[in-house]
Design a protein that fits this description.
This protein has 12 helices and no strands. By secondary structure, it is mainly alpha-helical. Helix 1 runs antiparallel to helix 9.
């Protein structure tokens, strides 16, 4: 097997292992729009990374964490709803990203915009693979450490507060974990598709799960299967790999739903 295929497979599996567990929290807490906001901000991080000549992953992570911190600060003022604030932040970050991209293109700096929008898993390098696994390991360690708190606030924030869970801190930690995951994922499925990989495998796993832990484990399996079938379909039919992974995941969801509720 060629090296680029091995790197692509390892990158996809590394992302799937972390996207599944985080996706469960996103589904439970109905935070899909927040995931989209962080994904849109990733383009700004990529453009800034290119402008200062550094790897995109740390720049995207820093940008996502900044957006999460700004949202956390804005939410303290309840004059506007969370979805309104997310809409403002999402489109502002995307617009700023496009402006920086246009400036860099005018300077003659090459930015593979389509690759970052839709992913380019077949072009993952050894250094990028290292970033993916380091980021995934950090996210999983923090996720496991805060598992009970994350589960508690997903079930009922009021009960979690009574049990001694620090609601604001736990929510902010989850925002940071999601930002880091999107930074890790941008090379695999791209800015526009990462939210789908977070949500769809977890939604599929929910159809067959009776406990939260079971849903987390099944979501990882469905995410890995999506990567395998998407990568295989991409090579066989010569189609874009990132979208192929998302389509494979969506097919699994609809087939599972038909089988589960027929």
């Amino acid at each position: 097997m060629d090296d680029f295929l091995i790197n692509a497979l390892l990158a996809g599996i590394g992302l799937a292992v972390v996207a599944g567990p985080l996706g469960c929290i996103v589904v439970w807490r109905r935070m899909a729009y927040f995931g989209d906001t962080l994904a849109h901000s990733a383009l700004l991080g990529v453009a800034m990374a290119v402008s200062v000549d550094i790897l995109p992953v740390p720049a995207v992570a820093a940008t996502g964490m900044t957006i999460a911190a700004v949202l956390f600060w804005l939410e303290k003022n309840r004059e506007l709803s969370t979805d309104t604030l997310l809409g403002i932040l999402s489109h502002t970050a995307l617009a700023l990203g496009l402006i920086v991209v246009s400036i860099e293109q005018a300077r003659g700096t090459g930015i593979n915009l389509m690759g970052y929008l839709f992913g380019d898993i077949l072009a993952v390098s050894g250094s990028e693979l290292l970033w993916i696994y380091l980021g995934a390991a950090l996210v999983l360690i923090l996720y496991a450490y805060h598992w009970r708190a994350l589960l508690s606030i997903s079930v009922d924030e009021e009960l979690a507060k009574i049990d001694g869970v620090h609601i604001s801190r736990t929510r902010f930690i989850f925002m940071l974990l999601l930002a880091l995951t999107i930074a890790v994922a941008i090379k695999v499925v791209g800015v526009l598709l990462i939210t789908a990989l977070l949500i769809v495998p977890s939604a599929t796993a929910r159809l067959f799960s009776s406990t939260p832990l079971q849903m987390v484990l099944l979501s990882v399996l469905f995410a890995i299967a999506s990567v395998l079938f998407g990568l295989g379909g991409s090579l066989y039919w010569d189609i874009a790999t990132g979208p192929a992974i998302v389509v494979a995941s969506s097919i699994a969801f609809f087939v599972s739903r038909l089988l589960r509720f027929q």
